[in-house]
Amino acid sequence: MDPLEKIAPRSEGFIDWGDAYQRVERYFCALHIQDRLLLSQLVAKILSRAAERVEPSGKSPSVLAMEEAKKVVRTWFAEVLEAAGVPQKEIGAQGRLALFLADMPTRWQGEFLHPGPWPQEFLDSMKNTFLRTGPDFSEARMIPRKIDLGPVSAVADETWRVIDRWPFVGALVVWTIYIGIFGLVVYLLR
Q1: Which residue, 27, 69, 94, 104, shows the most beta carbons closer than 10 Å to its own?
Q2: How is the chain split into domains, by residue range?
Q3: Which residues of 161-186 are buried (b: 16+ CB within 10 A; e: fewer)?
Q4: In which domain of life is the source organism classified (predicted)?
């Protein structure tokens, strides 16, 4: 029995399957798969795989469909990159980036999610654009260090401490400075 037959238009879950269809279609559109026929075939394939799992898992069709879509895309990336001779560990984001940099959606859209063998030019392009994240991850520690701002900050800090200890002296100093500046301005403008 075709799993898609479980998705009957008059069934209770038909609206949920419509939502699942839209999500998977948008996911593939985000990967720049624009050909409507190819897009419909790929979405039907994903929904068929999700329909096989819906009853035993108890998850919603949308969740299952997106799980299947990501799984299929990840598996396809692994197969393509393995065929291209690229050793990989985690390829999700890097595979998508290689896909765009190799211009797969424009040049080899028909190869997307289809089993190999793939054209050698496509494999070479995917291999050349597959980016590595750089050196392996290494744990680093950051130890906080005191910032040295020189003698000016030390004088300013000591001044504020004095003003905090004797607020009357602080107010007297501040007003003396204001009056001195005001007197200097009056002297210069007369």
Answers
A1: 69
A2: 3-132, 152-189
A3: eebeeeeeeeeeeeeeeeeeeeeeee
A4: Bacteria
Most confident of the ranges 91-95, 134-138, 179-183: 179-183
Global pTM value:
0.58
Q: Tell me how far the alpha carbon of residue 111 is from its chain's centroid.
A: 25
- Contact assessment for residue 88 and residue 80, using Cβ atoms and an 8 Å cutoff: no
Tokens of 4: 């898609």
Q: For 114, how many CA atoms within 13 A lie in the half-sphere containing its CB?
A: 13
Nearest to 99 by CA among 117, 118, 177: 118
| Pure H helices in the chain | 14-30, 36-57, 61-83, 92-101, 104-107, 120-129, 151-165, 167-189
Unique residue bearing structure tokens 């950051």: 142
